[in-house]
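Hi all, posting the design record for the shared folder.

TITLE: backbone redesign
STEP: 1 of 1
STRUCTURE INPUT:
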């Protein structure tokens, strides 16, 4: 099947293949690393296979998704449970925890510690996606 004219010249950046210290590198080395994992988009006959993750990357990605997706539901359900059963101390503690999590300041994005965290690359490796 011939390539569609709109997608004939599409390049894919394989984010999961970026090195662990990608964000800690100087800008010119970051561009070189992006160029090294960029290739023309292949036409896929089947779904892409998942990439092999190290235990650390798998734990980081799982922890990230649990903290961002499951923690709010867990706090809400715990709050409703304790509220229904009339437990005032745990209910107050959950309100304080929710307030602290909602109002604490976020770290500055330009900081080197934030940019060089492996947590930024772990979700990209968990879902082998290309941009």
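Okay, here is what came back for every position:
SEQUENCE:
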């Amino acid at each position: 099947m011939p390539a569609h004219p709109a997608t004939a010249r599409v390049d894919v950046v394989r984010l999961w293949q970026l090195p662990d210290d990608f964000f800690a590198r100087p800008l010119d080395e970051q561009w070189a690393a992006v160029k090294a994992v960029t290739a023309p988009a292949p036409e896929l006959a089947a779904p892409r296979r998942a990439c092999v993750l190290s235990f650390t990357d798998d734990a980081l990605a799982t922890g990230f998704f649990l903290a961002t997706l499951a923690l709010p539901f867990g706090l809400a359900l715990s709050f409703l449970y304790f509220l229904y059963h009339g437990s005032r101390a745990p209910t107050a503690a959950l309100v304080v925890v929710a307030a602290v999590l909602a109002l604490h300041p976020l770290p500055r994005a330009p900081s080197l510690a934030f940019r060089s965290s492996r947590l930024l690359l772990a979700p990209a490796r968990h879902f082998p996606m290309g941009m």
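COMMENT: Residues 55-84 form the longest helix (30 residues).
Let me know if anyone wants the other runs.
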